[in-house]
Design a protein that fits this description.
Layout lengths: L30 H13 L2 H8 L3 H15 L4 E3 L4 E3 L1 H28 L1 H10 L13 H11 L9 E7 L2 E7 L6 E6 L13 H11 L2 E5 L11 H16 L7 E5 L1 H15 L7 E5 L20 H12 L22 E6 L5 H13 L4 E6 L14 H29 L2
Parallel strand pairs: 5-6, 5-7, 7-8, 8-9, 9-10
Antiparallel strand pairs: 1-2, 3-4, 4-6
Length: 417
């Protein structure tokens, strides 16, 4: 039944009527007040919450007190040594979390539809375009690449420590204390730029998604160290981790762009030499075809055709591009471990990802190809603000966890537990 008399409410049979309306929230409440409250309530520590929100502790305290004044009740009990939630604080926390999540998702959707997020990706990558081809000694190119990565931070709580992995300087990146590495991550950069230090954000995101530590070798770069220097370093780091790991059968290898190509070279060389293979591989936007026989989107951000040619010449240094270890798109991939291959529909090297999936299936390898609607190569690097990239990292983490669980079950079975 509905009624439309002047001054009357409209009633609908499919909506429950409220006898008394809930009061409106005070007009002065802002999202930053709620974010501050949620951070303190989750951490139960003002110092950690302030670090998490990148504000000072006094500013955070002012925001909490302002929220309490507006709400009209005490939300947190503070003492010298502890912070506790009141009953009112618990009630607000349960409702504030989904509210903030919904707001963030709504803003992200608006930015994605409006093109702002992809515009940010393009602006971030633009300084790299053409710089490799026009920088003879690569000093400026390497500094620019590191500066680009310095804009991003690992997830809160990430712990990084240096190690020497089989003689290769490396970093272990983990989402918390006590998590040893079970993943080897080979960074991108066209074999001529990039570093383990610069890739802490990317490794940290994958480590958080997979809930494990990640070993990031700082492999040698061309042209100072052409093929097979990077591959030799990757092998040493991988074999070292197998010696150190509590469960070597559960190790996974991962990499993006040229790092994805290096992962395939690593797998093929291990297979050739009858060395133990990893449990699985995660290959993000791989750059595989060094002969440049597959088409590329030369207008995609990050690298020009001249950049690509310079990287190939520097890395190969006269070595034939059709070497089976360097050419996974024409190699026998039989016997390689399961692969997760990710690429973007606007990826400059999308053809490489599709060809790899086809070649893997042809040789009986379990390969999953995941495509994301993004106009960028190596888009996973932008997980901190690009929803598709965050989804991709979560999927990669879930894939890695599958093999962690399998390896743990196998180990328990072998020990009779």
């Amino acid at each position: 039944m509905t009624g439309n008399r002047p001054g009357s409410h409209t009633w609908r049979v499919d909506q429950p009527a409220s006898v008394l309306p809930f009061p409106h929230a005070p007009d002065g409440i802002e999202l930053r007040h709620l974010r501050a409250f949620v951070a303190v309530a989750e951490e139960l520590n003002f110092g950690r919450a302030a670090d998490r929100l990148y504000v000072s502790q006094p500013a955070l305290s002012r925001q909490i007190r302002g929220l309490e004044q507006l709400v009209g009740c005490e939300l947190l009990r503070r003492s010298t040594h502890s912070v506790e939630l009141t009953l009112a604080g618990e009630a607000l926390l349960d409702r504030a979390r989904p509210l903030l999540r919904d707001v963030d998702e709504a803003v992200a959707a608006a930015l994605a539809v409006g093109g702002e997020l992809l515009g940010r990706v393009a602006r971030t990558l633009e300084p790299m375009r053409g710089i490799v081809a026009n920088d003879p000694d690569l000093v400026r190119a390497r500094a620019t690449f590191e500066s680009m990565f310095a804009q991003f931070s690992p997830p809160a709580g990430t712990i990084t420590r240096p190690v020497t992995a089989g003689g290769v300087p490396s970093l272990v990146v983990a989402p918390g204390a006590g998590l040893e590495p079970t993943v080897v991550y080979l960074h991108g950069g066209g074999y001529v730029v990039g570093s383990a230090f610069g890739y802490q954000s990317q490794a940290g995101a994958l480590a958080a998604a997979a809930q494990t530590g990640i070993l990031v070798p700082d492999y040698r770069l061309a042209p100072e160290h052409p093929f097979p220097a990077a591959l030799d370093d990757a092998r040493r780091a991988y074999l070292w981790l197998r010696e150190q790991a509590a469960n070597p059968e559960g190790i996974v290898v991962a990499g993006d762009s040229a790092g994805g190509g290096l992962i395939l070279s690593l797998l093929l060389s291990l297979k050739r030499d009858h060395e133990p293979l990893p449990a699985a591989a995660v290959i993000l936007c791989p750059w595989l075809d060094l002969s440049e026989s597959t088409p590329s989107a030369s207008d995609a951000p990050l690298a020009s055709d001249e950049d690509v040619r310079r990287c190939v010449e520097a890395y190969l240094s006269g070595h034939p591009a059709d070497d089976p270890i360097l050419d996974p798109l024409r190699a026998d991939l039989g016997g390689l471990p399961p692969m997760l291959i990710q690429a973007a529909t606007g990826d400059a090297r999308l053809a490489d990802a599709k060809a790899l999936a086809g070649q893997a299936h042809e040789h009986g390898v379990d390969a999953r190809l995941e495509l994301f609607p993004v106009e960028a190569h190596a888009f996973q690097l932008f997980w901190s603000f690009l929803p598709e990239a965050a989804d991709a990292m979560e999927a990669a983490g879930a894939f890695i966890r599958e093999f962690d669980v399998q390896a743990e079950r196998t180990a328990r079975g072998a020990s009779g537990l």
